[in-house]
Amino acid sequence: MRGFLFLAIALNAGIGGPDKVWDDNLFEDNLLDSVVVSAGRAYNSTPVAHTTVLAGELAKTAPASSLPMALKLQPSVVAANEGGTGVGNSSIKVRGVPGNQTIVTLNGITLNDAETQEVFWVNIPALSRYVGSLQLQRGLGTTASGPGAFGASINMVTDLPAAAGGGMEAAGGSFGTFAGYAHATTGATPVGLFAEAAGSWQRTDGYIRNGFANVWSAYGSFGWQGERNLARLTFLHGSQRSGICWGGEPLERFDARDYTYNPASDGDADDYRQTHLQLLLSHNFNKETMIQATVNMTRGNGFYEQLQPDFGNSTRDAESNVLWAARAELRRTSEFFKGSAGVYLSWFRSRHWGEYSNGGGHYYDNDADKREVDVWMRAEWMPLPVLNFYADLQYRSIRHEMRGPDEYGQTLDFDRTWDFFNPRIGASLTVGPLLSLYSSIAYGSKEPNRADIQASQEVKPEKMLDIEFGNRLNVGVWKSSVNVYFMEYFDMLLETGRLNAVGYAIRENVPRAWRRGVELASALDLAWFKVEGNMSVSFNKIRDYSAYVDCFDADWNFLGQTRETYGKTDMLLSPSFVGALSWTQRLWTGAELKLTGKLVGSQYWDNTGSSQRRIPAYFVQDLGFRQEIDWHGKWILSADIGNLFNNRYYAYAWVYRAYVDGMPYQSEGVFPQAPINVMFRLGYEF
After folding, report:
1. Residue 390 and residue 426: Cα distance in Å, rounded?
2. Is CB count within 10 Å lower at the N or C end of the chain?
3. Residues pairing with 414 in the sheet
4. Beta strands, E only, 334-386
5. DSSP secondary structure of 604-655
6. pTM
7. Is the pLDDT at 630 greater than 60, yes or no?
């Protein structure tokens, strides 16, 4: 009933949650800043559905939230956390698009792992505290480097420090959750030098048993800024040890109200460290032309360890990898033209191996090498002040090699080269001073990931045609937007609902599928309060779906597979309705009281459309209070109540189906989210 009430209020409010920033040209006030920001960003005139969120908004989220959880109210977004508390392994889906089809960049450099194509947010804790702004693009969006965006992209930048200062904060709350953060910066000195440092620490016992996490990160930036030149070295390090809970819990346990059960053994843990180094150099020839180059090194190493009670031993699966990347871009901006051209080069090397913890030696050892070359050109031309044409062309060439046995005992000798051409065109029209209309058509293609190749070396790349159109309305205190999209997939790599041994989704090529929908957003911002909201209605279908189900005899000897034909079905984990609404009340003391709600429609565990394998719709409300006090600096007091009405729900699930001795068999895992919980924070800025 609360969900229906929420929807009625949202409709009355104009349906919402629009773009946080409507004029991306604000970044162009500082040409050197805009060099960093422009990498992959959409402008206000670009015919791409996007939302821009500034650091101030990110800082107001609950202090223990990972970045996906901080974005959970954005249009078409569904976020979940394995441990249930927001700390640790988190995931984000946009329009139902999973993480391995979502490109994430930091200062123009890809954060997606080159093999899995995922971003493991737990490896970079508190990333939202180091980001100056981010832009969430829905659809194929603008060209980004690295694994191609295939339905969504998140583009993040770290700002140049504006003024000297610093601060610190401490927070604590439910489930033994604590967080600390500190930062300091010199600002821009008279000689142009600047330095900035920050660090964070978070720990939690987790809501789920063995859902603990102990994570920390550090950020540093040092450089020099002249009138036309910029040199900056950026350092980012993350370290995490978290309990394994990627198996979820059986549905019967959840139905029996055993919400914290975890089949993993106590002490099963994931341990990983990741370091990013970026050197950025830029030069402005004049107010219209600039060039910038970035060199990046990302090194990661770690392991996950699982107790094997039946063998009286434990296994450790380890990985060590390094990514070298370089990006160069030439950009020209004038009153009627914005254009850029660039190249992105990357070289990724990794080693995967497994060993017995008691010294029994290795049981597999696999090496991988992946190299990529991207070249792109992008332009926006305004022949008339009210008309803007957009074109974006990208060519990608990838070579992926793997050698040696993998964790499943198969010899994974693979050597493949892919070449992709991804064009995008569009136009926008300004109708009077308040309304703009836009449309675009884009084509994207993307290579399979490591798990896809492990499942079948004959797997095909996936392709998509993305057609979008909509409008943006800005009437001062009221802003709204409507976006209609048709994402047409060919040979789509789609999750089957099954997970492999390390929790990655097993995917397969589906010849024809689509995501089609409409996104509505609106906001009303008055002196004493602000109302924001958004609503997405979509149809996410597979045209002709066939499932291949394993068959075993009574002794679990594998007999082969049987084919089940379902015709047109719904895609798994793709709710047809997603909505969010927030009310921010500004109090006379300067404090803010914010009530938010997120409504996610029902979604299926797999692609069979069975009502027996479906996540029920859920509605979750949060309440936050924030007070800033100016007294010898700025003091910040905040309190956040998550899941205000103690809703018991799970936000994610997987399933494995088989026939054993002719009878259907099923194992599954669902991921309960935390009940009502609180976090308190005290901060000081100077």
Report:
1. 5
2. N
3. 402
4. 337-356, 362-384
5. ESSTT--TTSEEPPEEEEEEEEEEEEESSSEEEEEEEEESTT----EEEEEE
6. 0.91
7. yes
